[in-house]
Write a structure and sequence with these properties.
The structure holds two protein chains of two kinds. Chain A has three helices and seven strands; from the N terminus they run H-E-E-H-E-E-E-E-H-E. By secondary structure, chain A is α/β, with parallel strands linked by helices. Chain B has a domain of 122 residues: 3-Layer(aba) Sandwich (Rossmann fold). Helices cover 32% and strands 13% of the residues of chain B. In chain B, helix 2 packs across helix 5. Classes of the chains: A alpha/beta, B alpha/beta.
């Protein structure tokens, strides 16, 4: 089986999910589109089983505080058979950061979703064991959210009085 | 035929005896001082090396700088046998309980040296995931500045530890001031 192009892929997707895909772009040749969390699992299953996107490269999130729906959960998926990658985004409102888990489709999603929860506080419904993975267990903040200061508050050697300010 | 032996032995310095009373056939000093001399010249360091300061420590242990000249030939990789904890490198907050556990496993008397900017203050890693100096979790005796410090600086820090060891009282763990210090860190 040879490589398939972005156009062919988009055609196959839009014939099945006509109204469920939004904002289709191709930055740097990578087919990117948005969907909603209600349609997410359906789209992901179609990509995995029908189009052989068997490799989930990454799940992560981005925080855009200025947007109405500030959290974007991003899925990078790779079809090794067809030699093509695709990027899928789901935007979530700040007071409702729930999204269904993809760990039923790809086992690799388990730790990726834990990491996304750890840093952004995104809650993956149906995840078998959603707890922090990289940060200390007693951390109270989600450090990659913009409202969280990057610096450690315990730091004292950068206080102004050490510099005569 | 005759051999000429170069007189290499003359450069070697031997540790001086502590101050005491000396006479024909006897030498008297206090037990604390004698123990101090013995301890300070036979410290067993535990290298807790997590990053680049650890590489400098390897150079310090190597033949060119040779920390063994100061009686620290024998590194102890078991905290139970170590006298000196040398923390070299960035300590992430997730590593902090491990470091604390290592410190708690060391037998008294124990000393701690924070080598480099990260171990002393967090260094350039002023961020949510890094411990801002190991003195947030365990007491520190000597701080060695540098990023990373050169082997000379590590040796200088080690010699300062030796000075502390020499003047240490025989049973430090019964000293109320010391117990108070440990209590501040929630130890015992």
């Amino acid at each position: 089986m040879g490589k398939i192009s972005n156009e062919e892929l988009l055609q196959k997707l839009s014939s099945k999910f006509d109204s469920k895909l939004a904002n289709v772009t191709e930055p740097y040749g990578l087919l990117t589109f948005e969907t909603t969390r209600e349609d997410l699992i359906e789209v992901l299953s179609f990509l995995k089983t029908d189009l052989q996107f068997i490799h989930l490269t990454d799940i992560t999130a981005i925080h855009y505080p200025e947007l109405e729906k500030p959290f974007a959960v991003v899925y990078h998926i790779h079809s090794l058979v067809n030699g093509i990658r695709v990027r899928l985004k789901v935007f979530l409102a700040a007071d409702d950061v729930h999204i269904p888990t993809a760990s039923d489709l790809w086992n690799g999603a388990n730790w990726m979703e834990r990491e996304t929860y750890d840093f952004f506080g995104i809650i993956f419904d149906g995840h078998p064991d959603l707890r922090r993975i990289l940060n200390v267990d007693d951390m109270t903040a989600f450090p990659m959210r913009k409202e969280f200061p990057l610096e450690d508050p315990n730091r004292i050697d950068k206080k102004d009085y050490f510099f005569g300010r | 035929m005759s051999f000429v032996f170069p007189n290499i032995m003359s450069d070697i310095q031997i540790v001086e005896a502590p101050p005491g009373v000396e006479g024909s056939g006897f030498f008297a000093t206090s037990l604390d001082k004698a123990i101090g001399v013995a301890r300070s010249n036979s410290l067993w360091p535990l290298p807790f090396a997590t990053s680049c300061c650890g590489i400098e420590f390897m150079a310090t242990m190597g033949s060119h700088y040779d920390l063994s000249r100061f009686g620290a030939e024998r590194l102890s990789f078991s905290p139970r046998q170590a006298d000196l904890l040398m923390v070299m490198g960035t300590i992430a907050k997730k590593m902090a309980p491990v470091l604390r556990q290592v410190y708690l496993q060391m037998a008294e008397p124990r000393w701690v040296m924070a080598v480099g900017a990260c171990a002393s203050s967090g260094g350039i890693f002023d961020t949510y995931s890094v411990l801002q100096g190991i003195d947030e979790i365990i007491p520190v005796d000597v701080y060695v500045p540098g990023c990373p410090p050169r082997p000379e600086a590590i040796i200088d820090g080690f010699m300062n530890i030796q000075k502390l060891v020499q003047t240490e009282s025989g049973r430090r763990r019964e000293d109320p001031k010391y117990q108070e210090l440990l209590a501040k860190y929630g130890i015992q």
